[in-house]
Design goal:
- The protein has 313 residues and is an alpha+beta fold.
- Helices cover 38% and strands 18% of the residues.
- It has a 7-stranded mixed sheet.
- Strand 4 (224-228) and strand 5 form a beta hairpin.
- Helix 1 runs antiparallel to helix 2 (26-58).
- The longest helix has 33 residues, at 26-58.
- It is elongated, with a radius of gyration of 37 Å.
- The structure holds 3,4-dihydroxyphenylalanine.
């Protein structure tokens, strides 16, 4: 029998003996109780000691001859890092959400309705060809622009209009175009779409929002200008350009995005009355935005997986 078991048995017997106290004359009970308590305490101490000894017996001793490298770092730095485009995309979305815009994410596979019909592209219209869309054999479309999300955004936030508010949402996403790649064109890139609808939205508000966005993103005052554009989903349509300050390489004006007042048909298709509400929308490439910020010469680096490029960030 183990030492602990023996002691526990002794304790049990002692407790049984204790019961004898009732049979003793009252004047003897005090002395008996004190004697029993002292015995009990002795056994309890012995049990505690024996248990402690048993515990340390179970712990295997440290092998002090094991190899060790006290000068090696214990925590290795994580392998890999975030892609610079994702870091910048967070910054872009952060600026818009600070302005009060909601954020939705775009689909990476979409359909004819969201790519064209819901955006007021007439059936068989040549403007459809202008978007160089890829198609799957089932006729799904990897979106060629984030505008594919406009219809969904309008429907999702329509209730905010009905409650006396406004629709304000930005939608970053990955887009795909079936065109030849060169230093400024890539088959896969990122865009950020913006949609705003209220009772009295104006072009002026839109240019104010966009100027503010670019100034926040580049951290400096900028000149912007617009030129007419054509998109079936806006009327009027425009392109927005910024003047490159010398800190961003200088050399004149650069087109940054397409924009315009949302076409009444686009609002109508989402169930919004164009006589009551007006909206503006815009969409522009994230890659181009980042290239300008870091003075990068070739858009293809982003999708290349080149480690020496990625390690620069
Ligand atoms: N989707 C257009 C493109 O990729 C850009 C654009 C133009 C987006 C006008 C808009 C807009 O929302 O209103 O070329």
């Amino acid at each position: 029998m183990s030492e602990i078991k023996k002691l526990k048995l002794e304790l049990k017997n002692l407790n049984a003996e204790y019961a004898r106290i009732k049979t003793l004359p009252p004047e003897e009970r005090g002395a008996f109780g004190r004697e029993m308590n002292a015995k009990k305490q002795k056994i309890l101490n012995a049990i505690a000691k024996a248990e402690e000894a048993a515990e340390s017996e179970n712990v295997s001793p440290i092998d002090i001859s094991a190899p060790c490298a006290p000068n090696e770092p214990i925590f290795r730095p994580a392998l890999g890092s975030r892609h610079p485009l994702m870091t910048e995309l967070d910054r872009v979305v952060g600026i818009y959400s600070d302005m009060g815009f909601n954020v939705m994410e775009s689909n990476q596979l979409d359909d004819e309705f969201h790519m064209f019909d819901s955006l007021n592209f007439p059936k068989e219209h040549p403007a459809r060809d202008g978007y160089d869309t890829f198609r799957t054999s089932e006729n799904f479309i990897p979106p060629a622009h984030t505008s594919t999300m406009q219809h969904r955004a309008l429907k999702k936030y329509k209730k905010d209009l009905e409650n006396g508010g406004q629709i304000a949402v930005v939608i970053p996403g990955r887009v795909f175009r079936n065109e030849d790649a060169d230093a400024t064109h890539e088959h896969t890139f990122y865009q950020c779409e913006g949609v705003f609808v209220s009772k009295d939205a104006t072009m002026g508000q839109m240019f104010g929002v966009l100027k503010q966005f670019f100034e926040n993103y580049y951290g400096q005052k900028l000149n912007i200008k617009t030129q007419p554009g054509y998109f079936p989903f806006t009327e009027p349509s425009a392109e927005l350009l910024i003047e490159r300050p010398s800190s961003l390489g200088g050399e004149g004006w650069l087109e940054m995005l397409g924009c315009g007042m949302i076409h009444p048909n686009v609002l109508k298709m989402a169930g919004i009355d164009p006589d009551k509400y007006h909206g503006f929308a815009w969409g522009g490439g994230i890659d181009r935005l980042v290239m300008l910020k870091y003075q990068l010469g070739d858009i293809r680096y982003f999708e290349s997986g080149k480690l020496d490029f990625l390690e620069e960030f």
